[in-house]
Amino acid sequence: MSPINDLNASAELGQMLPTRVLTRGGAQLDPRLDVWEWTDGVFKLRIDFSYYKGGYERHVPSLKLALVPYLKGHSSSHVVNLERAYRFLVESSGPCLEREFLPTHLSNFMAALGPNEQWRVGTLNGLIQRWVALGLPGMHSECATYLAQRRKPGNKKGEAVATRDPFKGPFSELEYTALHSAVNAAYGRGDIPLWPVILSRLLLACGGRISQYASLKILDFDTDTRVLQLPQAKSRQEHSRVQFLEFDIGSQTSGLLAKYVNELHAAGFPEVAPLFPEDLVMARKAAKQLRAPEDLFFGHCDAATLSRRYQRSIEDVAPPTPRLDFAPMPLNPQRFRYTYGTRNVEEGASKAVLANRLGHVDLQHVDVYYSASPKVVENIDKAIGVQLAPLARAFQGTLVEDETSSTQKGALGSRIIDFRVSTDPVGGCSQCARDCSFSKPVGCYTCFRFEPFLDAPHEALLQLLLRERERWIDDERMAAINDESIRAVEEVIALCRQVREERAFGEEAST
């Protein structure tokens, strides 16, 4: 196509746009509309071209014609990123006084970018090269030459992992266990529904991207084998539900997951329904349904909505972290993925194994997990551990006087006994161990249902756990398995001691 020099031909240029475009993901849209809205798997995309005013609106037909080829051959998120990069260029250029963009505009744009935004140059470069190659008005041909001759830095990857960023990086060991306990306790108190608990556990267990969890269906979890088939994102397939990766889910999480699946079925959701349905996750139904009932992802939350609703549902129960002056720890889903990768490396996973579990097609993206010294990580955890421990309570239950003071008062299934140390119960269960998959009595100490008795053999149980830990002293991960329960038992012992001391003080004062 020969260059079109008359910008006043914008209306005629708009007529060159097709009335229908089929995206790579199979969605249809009319590129002549002011607003493009479409779905691509579990993603909902939107570009509003009415944003461009003050003279820039005459460039919109050229922008659309440059974007259409990307709609057909690239991911939808890439198309949105291209338009956003152009929007940044417009915002940095000020009023539209020129008939077309010049290299000076690009120079000003690059100078205005912060250190963490330099990657936008590379994104914009792709759009401008296409724009100029099509001979579309609004972009001087020298713009393509100017960008081609300059280094275009990519998005800096892995920095949050390498620096153990407290906002975006992996959780420390103490943060990990504190979060696990806080979410469990919040669910037990009725502060949060079951679905965020399930998502938290799957994020920690599988390390997937939030879009993978948004793609899950009920049938992807086999309640008999306890295997989860996690859809693979970024596999360059038609959609995310073409390839799957199997994960064995632990007994406690699979028990909760089975309960959750039964509740979904009872609510009328069939096996082919999403595991995290839009109707369940969203506070209110979407104003506009972009998917047809026959769409494979009908009823699924889009990835951004699932991420946002998850963070909103658990932000009030996030435990504090001294790495942020004891503010609640940020809980964006990406941090769980980084934590999964970090913990796998610390457990000795090879690069090939880690790349496979994280769904990477090559090894270059996992190098960052191996770049930080394990000793540095160990020192970080130790440095914050002492400060975090008093705030991150491992014991979530309620101390009671004795069995007669407990909720169930000795009912069948309520007594918690460890016959290795005594035939006397250490406490009671407020729900008689219903729907429980914890290992009794060790797991009980971290459960919100547990009601330890004041005069019970807690010290004897603690000594048993410490001896078992000593057996695994050469295997740090194995030795740490019961650390959270050990801390919980210690907290119960401290509470019992405090009660006794307060009573003794009261008796002395009364005499």
TrEMBL record:
One molecular function GO term is:
DNA binding
Superkingdom, natural source: Bacteria
- A Pfam family found in this protein is Phage_integrase
Gene Ontology terms describing biological process:
DNA integration; DNA recombination
What the entry lists under SUPFAM superfamilies is as follows: DNA breaking-rejoining enzymes
Q: Which InterPro entries match?
A: DNA_brk_join_enz, Integrase-like_cat_sf, Integrase_catalytic
The identity of this protein, by name, is: Integrase
